[in-house]
Fold this sequence. Notes:
Blueprint: H1 2-52, H2 60-77, E1 80-85, E2 90-93, H3 106-112, E3 117-120, E4 126-134, E5 139-148, H4 151-201, H5 218-267, H6 273-304, E6 313-316, H7 317-334, E7 338-342, E8 347-350, H8 352-368, E9 374-381, E10 385-392, H9 414-420, H10 426-436, E11 440-446, E12 450-458, H11 462-468
Amino acid sequence: MRWLLLILCCIIGFGPIFIFSRATMTSVNNYFTANRQKELMRQANVIADQVSGSDFFTNEDNLEYFSEYLLDTSIQGGYRIMITDRTGMVIMDSNNSEKGKVYAIQEVIEALNNKSVANVQNNGNIYTAVPIMDYTSSEIIGSVLIFSSAADITDTVEVIRGLFSFILLGILICVGIAIFFISKIFVKPLKELQGVINRLTDGHLDSRVKETKVFRNEITDIGSAFNEMADKLEKIDDSRQIFVSNVSHELKTPLSSIKVLADSISTADDLPKEMYIEFLQDITNEVDRMSNIITDLLNLVRLDQKELPLKFEATDLNKFMSDIVKRLTPLANAKDIDITYEGKNVMAEIDSVKLSLAISNLVENAIKYTDEGKVTVTLDSDHQNAFITVADTGIGIPESEQNKIFDRFYRVDKTRDRQTGGTGLGLSITHSTVLMHNGSIKVLSKENEGSTFLVRIPLKHPYVLENDK
Length: 469
Ligand code: ADP
């Protein structure tokens, strides 16, 4: 990762610098060459003017004197000067080697055709040629040719290029080192995260990424988000373990009772028939209790299974509620409890099977935890929600326990619940079901005065709305 970052930065950062430096060097080279061409052209024109103003072509003395002058100029300027007549024959050559020969190169031909030219040859030399004009007849009488080597320009550009490359290399090394260390800041938390993931995979569920308050960035934020996720997973794992141990404990208690009862029957001699019946009745009660626990557990598991979504259907809530109350009225009557229902016509999109179980749990609890009192069930609504209340005048729930009663297997008074046959799972089922309806549930209670459970259920469920579209 670090190396990848380094290579990427080099490509992205130094690619353009490299191209820029090449382009700069080419421009510098062109600039120097163009300047040299201009200078040579100016020099050639000066010479051409001097030639045309003298009787150079006719006077031998003048030619000799002029040749010396041109030789000096050529030595000083560091270039070769040639003068040809109108046929292209060399009359004067500062190198003296071509004198008397016809020198018909492209530049000479063009100059004799009244064109001033300055060309850079493939070998890097600059050839400059200008015409010599006879001012009186306005005729071209010859040409001045200057050859100059561009080696000094190439040398200068090479020196600048070397300097440039040196500076570039320096920058490259400095920036490379900087990137290498800066990338550590980004790579370190990722490496740490990877290590923590590996430790978690190995089963060390308490492993966490070290969080930092300084230099916070998107990568360190990933670490914090990861820690949050790990906390939640650990909590889920803990609650699963607690759940399993609770289930084992809850099932073990009736099993122990059954064993004690069965042992008593098998070891006791001459037990009266009524005692047998009583013991067997107790065994049946314990088996019922286990059966209730298993039924509730199955209901909870089904609610937890996301692949079994609730079936939301538009339902007449008033009828739904009065059916529940009607079904449970005999249970209330058996305990001399006055049960009443008051509702209004409300239509809501609910899973009636699951919500019926949830609301029944509340009404059954109200009956179960009330002795000779009143249970009042009501249904109300606004334009968004239905509100169901189940109120009783029973034993109530101590304030310190009220936030725990929705936990699985939580019971306020364990001994009492063993008599009432409670499993501690009913409210947990109700809570999950209400949440799956996007609703909420609250309890208001005072010890020895009674409890009121308030349930809010949205009239429209987003799942149904989406399907209807
Ligand atoms: P259980 O099967 O024991 O009734 P629940 O989950 O339905 O389990 O209820 C959890 C605990 O909450 C009960 O054991 C009881 O102590 C308390 N509780 C629930 N409803 C009421 C109520 N209406 N009045 C008093 N206590 C209640």
